[in-house]
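Readers outside the structure-tokenisation community will struggle with the description of the input data as it stands. I therefore recommend that a typical entry be quoted early in the introduction. An entry of this sort, consisting of the sequence and the corresponding backbone structure tokens, reads as follows:
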Amino acid sequence: MLASQYHMFMIDQRNHGLSPQSEEFDYKVLATDLKEFIREHKLERPIVLGHSMGGKAAMNFAISNPAMLDRLIIVDIAPKAYPVHHDRIVEGLKAIAINSLQSRNEADKILSEYVPEADVRQFLLKNLLRKPEGGFSWKINLPVIDKNLEQISADIQFPGTYQGQTLFVRGVHSHYVKDGDRQRIKNLFPNSTLVTMDTGHWVQAEKPQEFVEVVRNFLANAN
């Protein structure tokens, strides 16, 4: 929906999707990856939007490279450390015997013992890749993600603030951005606004049209 109005780049972060895999996996390298992507594609002060882990990477990038972006949009994540809470999901993914897996339904059945929410399982199982010769593999670098869960739950890794216009969008039924986080957000992103939507954590997936309208309104009213 946004592509009708903007030139969009949708980036797989390292160890995800079609991006390269690496033993290094923390917010400093993710912020550097974004910096190198912008330079490689010769983008002039793009608008950067990130959800969850992508939002934390975007915040780290903005604080460490404030002159490189025009505006920042962060979806359902706060600039703080979180307790490691995706370990159950990772255990479920590790329980899938990827080398002998016969079908996505088999993977979903195994994962359901760890992740009861069907929509979350559907999202996670997008990481299954059917190999041309038969069978499946993971798009994600599961061992490295497992090893670095604490790094991905960490606080902002760079000193300073981002003074540019910033939109935070949170889901009212999500626990990621709480009322008590507002002051921390304002301290690091003083020129920020917070919009709350009637969703859970998967804001843009649950209410895509409403989410796009929130983003468009922010961009239209930004100075």
User: Anything to note?
Assistant: The chain has a mean pLDDT of 94. The chain has two domains: 2-82+160-221, 87-147. Residues 87-147 form one domain. The chain has ten helices and six strands.
